[in-house]
Design brief:
Shape of chain B: globular
Structural class of chain A: mainly beta
Helix content of chain A: under 10%
Oligomer: heterodimer
Number of helices of chain A: 0
Strand content of chain B: over 45%
Radius of gyration of chain B: 13 Å
Structural class of chain B: mainly beta
Low-confidence stretches of chain A: none
Order of helices and strands of chain B: EEEEEEEEEEE
Number of strands of chain A: 11
Number of helices of chain B: 0
Distance between the termini of chain A: 41 Å
Low-confidence stretches of chain B: none
Strand content of chain A: 35-45%
Largest sheet of chain A: 6 strands, mixed
């Protein structure tokens, strides 16, 4: 079965500290993975997707098929990074369906 | 370019009533999907429409239904509302091909009392 697991409900760090938000997935096909972010009172927005291999707002994520992981990393957290982060797997058997993890709340303290 | 627009943004309904939520996708997008977001269950896929056809439906009871119009606008309907239907309902749109980026609206907050 397709599943996305984000083991941490809350990750609390100080400004300037490194951040790693964990995401593991279960999918029998070739996975396409995303990180979405939801800032307070704002819509869910795409942060990055694994196929683009971009760095957005200093965040990067590498797909590790051996460990079935897609962890989100940032070397130096900023207070404005505080938000809910959702890892999502695209199930695209002829249609587009995102399977979301439970989300991790990142709190960056000054 | 305008984003995904959902109306109404907030509404309160009574148990047993029915509700209709509307979604206008990004111009040119032909796929519209709906998600339910609750504190307990997180984000769950309801259904997806493409060119007026439902391509897939999530694991929700038949009280949840939707449709898409020829201009790609979509509506979802929940009949015989239950307290547990209280949630944020998110609409998302994309061009429709597998792998196209999916963009979300701000959602409709439904409270059932």
């Amino acid at each position: 079965a397709q599943r996305v697991t984000q083991p941490e409900k809350l990750l609390s760090v100080f400004k300037g500290a490194p951040v790693e938000l964990k995401c593991n997935y279960s999918y029998s096909g070739s996975p396409e993975l995303f990180w979405y972010v939801q800032y307070s009172r704002q819509r869910l927005q795409l942060l990055l997707r694994h196929i683009s291999r971009e760095s957005i707002k200093g965040f990067t994520a590498d797909l590790n098929k051996g460990e079935t992981s897609f962890h989100l990393k940032k070397p130096f957290a900023q207070e404005e990074d505080s938000a809910m982060y959702y890892c999502a797997l695209l199930f695209s058997g002829g249609y587009n369906k995102l399977i979301f993890g439970a989300g991790t709340r990142l709190a960056v303290h000054p | 370019k305008a984003g995904v627009t959902q109306t109404p943004r907030y509404l309160i309904k009574t148990r047993g009533q029915q509700v209709t939520l509307s979604c206008s996708p990004i111009s040119g997008h032909r796929s519209v999907s709906w998600y339910q977001q609750t504190p307990g269950q997180g984000l769950q896929f309801l259904f997806e429409y493409f060119s007026e056809t439902q391509r897939n439906k999530g694991n929700f009871p038949g009280r949840f239904s939707g449709r898409q119009f020829s201009n790609s606008r979509s509506e979802m309907n929940v009949s015989t509302l239950e307290l547990g239907d209280s949630a944020l309902y998110l609409c998302a749109s994309s061009l429709g091909a597998p792998g196209n980026t999916i963009y979300f609206g701000e959602g409709s907050w439904l409270t059932v009392v």
